[in-house]
Amino acid sequence: MIEPVHETPGAPVPPADGAGVRPIRLLIADDEPLIREALSDLFGGEACLELVGVASDADEAIELAGRTLPDVALLDVKMPGGGGPRAAREILARSPRTRLVALSAHEDPASIREMTRAGVSAYVVKGATSDEILETVRRAGREEC
């Protein structure tokens, strides 16, 4: 089930700090409920980030990205529905400006290559610290915050 946070894609986003800097609009896609919940909690407390939706598989991530046009999509490499590689390709087809970050429980070279070929520009391991995950997403969305 897709859990959208905002229903109006393309609606003006108010500046995060009054200085004209808008938050990074983020989509999370992971098939593990505890991971989705932990990431939602982590990003929900950040003033520079705006969670626009959460998906549990590639199909939901693709559909949600097409509606919300996120700045950054954090994608589980091995989620159902074709996994991160399919989600990455389809999201970029619908939202070419979205920057993609792979999220995986493993750092195997084959998965990294496959995700890179699909358009992912950053990779973070699920066991990374909260600060590492936040910094990776911030770097991916650096044009906004």
What characteristics describe this protein?
alpha/beta; disordered N terminus; six-stranded mixed sheet; 21% strand
What can you see in these coordinates?
It is built from five helices and six strands, in the order ββαβαβαβαβα. Mean pLDDT is 86; it is low at 1-18. By secondary structure, the chain is an alpha/beta fold. 38% of the residues lie in helices and 21% in strands. 39% of the residues are buried. The chain has a single domain (22-140), classed as Response regulator (Rossmann fold, 3-Layer(aba) Sandwich). Strand 2 (24-29), helix 1 (33-44) and strand 3 (49-55) form a beta-alpha-beta unit. It is globular. Helix 2 (58-68) packs parallel to helix 3.
SSE inventory with pairings:
Blueprint: E1 3-4, E2 24-29, H1 33-44, E3 49-55, H2 58-68, E4 72-76, H3 83-94, E5 99-104, H4 109-117, E6 122-125, H5 130-140
Parallel strand pairs: 2-3, 2-4, 4-5, 5-6
Antiparallel strand pairs: 1-3
CATH class: Alpha Beta
Number of strands: 6
Query: Low-confidence parts lasting 5 or more residues at pLDDT below 50?
Result: 1-18
Task: Give the number of domains.
Answer: 1
Largest sheet strand order: 1-3-2-4-5-6
**Structural Rg:** 14 Å
Task: Compute the number of helices.
Answer: 5
State the fourth-level CATH superfamily: Response regulator
CATH architecture: 3-Layer(aba) Sandwich
SSE-based structural type: alpha/beta
Major sheet:
6 strands, mixed
Query: What do we call the CATH topology?
Result: Rossmann fold
Distance between the termini: 29 Å
Mean pLDDT: 86
Q: What is the string of helix and strand elements? A: EEHEHEHEHEH
